[in-house]
């Protein structure tokens, strides 16, 4: 019986985020870096050297070349969002499993083409949203699904902001319409929207309405925006994302019996542990001078950084397909699609002067 060997991952593009994911591949017990590609052979060589790649790593001077590499099982793709639809489809057609940076596409129509290619070729696709793989996230879901401690969800607020400096706001690919044209919405907003969907058990909202006052740069790329989401049963949510405000990454979910708060949901304050607070049936004392049942803090230890947990899970799924004939796991593209749908709806609302957008039938 064949023994499972580490999944051989190729890194397709030398973006800054690829440094972090390269380290994650090194740390994941079931994956190894097999190759790296850039449009420049010298850039690929330099990236491999500066990030401690194994000597056995193949260096490719084009994206086409790494697609043809028979010793690559899967590709991590951190290319600009505008290039995802072309290169993810080409990777799928070559039978390469895909770990795709977020946002997954410029719009859901593009992502549907990517998914169709993956399904036609039996390859796994997962987006690079790291925090959902942190062991803490399973504990958050456990609390949110507890009918006694949390009850029924009523509302969620989620935000991710950071203050980009002058160079970032002028030169980063996330402010360039031809590269990552979704701006703060596609970058920071993706996380806030994913958190909101997770709290709602990935049920899409009925309506999405952007708040007036979105900030766009001269090229029309969103630098800051917010939105409200509603569900048919009365649940609500708000999201906020910005390149113009202090570093903040918060989730607050309020239920009929309990409240959940996370203050560092995207990147934990510490790599080796992650905390959150909960309260259940909180109230005031008799004189209304203090709380009864005040919030309590819970800490979850992590044996691997969350990005390595992501790579480990991706490699596990690829291994199941490669070694055991399993089918790709459809959960991951399904939540990518739902996140992209809400991103699209917020952008559409901004573009239509903050009109309410219905997601019915999308």
Q: Brief description of this entry?
A:
The protein is built from 10 helices and 18 strands. The chain has 362 residues and is of the alpha/beta class. InterPro entries: Gfo/Idh/MocA-like_OxRdtase_N, GFO_IDH_MocA-like_dom, NAD(P)-bd_dom_sf.
Description:
Strands 7, 8, 9, 10, 11, 12, 13, 14, 17 and 18 form a ten-stranded mixed β-sheet that branches. The chain has a six-stranded parallel β-sheet with strand order 3-2-1-4-5-6, with helices on both faces. It has a two-stranded antiparallel sheet with strand order 15-16. The protein has two domains: about 5-130 and about 305-325, Rossmann fold, CATH 3.40.50.720; about 135-305 and about 340-360, Dihydrodipicolinate Reductase, domain 2 (2-Layer Sandwich). The chain has helices at about 15-25, 40-50, 65, 85-95, 110-120, 135-145, 165-170, 185-200, 305-325, 330-350, and strands at about 5-10, 30-35, 60, 75, 95-100, 125, 155-165, 205-210, 215, 220-230, 235-240, 245-255, 260, 275-280, 285, 290, 295-300, 355-360. It has ten helices and 18 strands. Helix 1 (about 15-25) links the parallel strand 1 and strand 2 (about 30-35). The mean pLDDT is about 95. With about 350 residues, it is of the alpha/beta class. It starts with 6 loop residues before the first strand and ends with a strand. GO terms for molecular function: nucleotide binding. Belongs to the Gfo/Idh/MocA family. InterPro entries: Gfo/Idh/MocA-like_OxRdtase_N (IPR000683), GFO_IDH_MocA-like_dom (IPR055170), NAD(P)-bd_dom_sf (IPR036291).
